[in-house]
Amino acid sequence: MSVQFAVTAAETPAANGHGEAHSTATFKALMLGSIGVVYGDIGTSPLYALREAVVAASEGSAAATSQAVLGVLSLILWALIVVVTLKYVVILLRADNNGEGGTLALMALAQRAVGKGGATIVLLGIISGALFYGDAVLTPALSVLSAIEGMKLITVSFEHYVVPLTLVILVALFAVQSHGTARVAAFFGPIMCVWFAVIAIAAVPQIARHPEVLQAFNPLHAVSFMLHHGLIGFVTLGAVFLAVTGAEALYADLGHFGKRPIQTAWLFIVLPSLAVNYLGQGALLIADPKAIENPFFLMFPDWALIPMVALATVATVIASQAVITGAYSLTRQAIQLGLMPRFEIRHTSEAHSGQIYIPRINLLLFLAVILLVVLFRSSSALASAYGISVTGTMVVTAMMGFVVIWRVWKWSPIAAAALIAPFLFLDITFLAANLLKVFEGGWVPLALGGVVMLLMYTWRRGSRLLFEKSRKLEFPLADLVAMLEKRPPQRVPGTAVFLTSDPDCAPTALMHSLKHYKVLHEKNVILTIETAPTPRINDAERVRMEQLSETFSRVTLKFGFMESPNVPKTLAIARKLGWQFDIMSTSFFLSRRALKPAAHSGMPRWQDLLFIRLSRSANDATDYFQIPTGRVVEVGTQVTI
After folding, report:
1. Mean pLDDT score, 470-483
2. Which one of 49, 78, 402, 410 has the fewest CB atoms closer than 10 angstroms to its CB?
3. Among 412, 430, 461, where does a domain finish?
4. Could you give the CA distance from residue 423 to residue 72 in angstroms, rounded to a whole number?
5. Residue 110 and residue 403 in contact, taking contact as beta carbons nearer than 8 Å
């Protein structure tokens, strides 16, 4: 059964940003949690961002001039201020979909506002979702490699162990995913707080020795650098963007922590720590241009190198964990929005529905990450591949943000464009700069994103064609019920629940049951699962019942796109509406369709075959909807597409 994406007018009450409704103690806990989860990626960028940017600005020379360092520093600082602080912290955190953030949540919000003309919005959502998977693969590989590379500064003999040790850490990281992140997450916040404190404190002596580095706050240094360096300046911009990767996490994790905790953590802890650390690295490079080898670790005295490599490794694992968890959440949203086939979703926490584990996604991410580490073997090589997926996502987010500001916030199109245009221009500039690195490794996220986009588009298009074709062949439910009530077949005790994606047509399983068994249960329920364009649904709006006749009723269960559908648990709510639901006297009838390619289809033959392959790989509907397997009867049908 394919789940229909039904856009309805019903909305849950908007969340109030979490922080506003919580006590001070809870607010502090949310802020601490956001530091551990939201800022892991952007918080570990100092390990490689300034180094790569200054190397690019120095045109490959062994040393960097003071003016080049100040120019790069100014670009990084203002990128943090404009892109992260203004675009995400100030503006986009307000564009929540009933308290939830992220590109697919924004897509659903924009699509609901546009209505029938939302095909372009869906395409933008597919692009941003596909590019996120590129980020989810590159972040663990790049960040863990960059942390372990600090070992080379302790002794050169460690150089041969960097890649093997990175692989060991990544294997362990992906191996523990099935146990859930609840226990580990409790330590994320405090560890990242220590990380931000240490990287800021270590930079202070360097700034004190060379206070002229503070001139980087003057944006004229950034403008002058870009004007005088031409193509080199443009290439450098691609490396500068490494400092703001992870900004999307602020928006994606909005629903977990709320607006105010995320904003407060950024403005008072994360941004100051990052700015001070980048200034410290810049001061070190002004004093010793040869420190470009690894300015982050060279700020620390020799005795502190081993503890810092250990702390950096833990911090990068936390950053990787946040991205992996984000990939699980994005996949669940994509499944609910009809962009992917059903995958097995395991809940790793009884208290928090957002803590999930998807074995198939975990395996695919693991294989891709390991392959990248083996192929590129250094963080500098991987840095060339990084950035394209994130900048692409940011461009798409800005475009959908314009639609939301215009249609949802009710701004005039001119005012909305005036607000978003500067950020969109910056994002497109960063994207263009990163596209220069396509042949150096940038093809990796583009290829990965292209494959995911093709899969998402094929699944959505194929599901739509299959739905339309099935509807033409199906019998109107109202006519069938009238016929059965007029001339009823043999009755058997119990309740039969027939799952269907189209509540107006007789389910295939019901038609085949009548054809082969020639009997009908005493009570029959036509059950439809709807996915709303909102993240969650109130229990009061969860179940909709309609009595069609004495023996037939139609039930619609509605779930938000961030919820995992649990049919038996939800049907228990129907007891309050008068249905005496007893799982032990109820049989669930599902139609299992065997798809065959048709001679003439709405898609090319290769895409038909791809859709059929995806359909066969989909997780069983019984497991996905959490129906007890002992209560399920599957009826097989053959359908051409």
Report:
1. 84
2. 410
3. 461
4. 20
5. yes
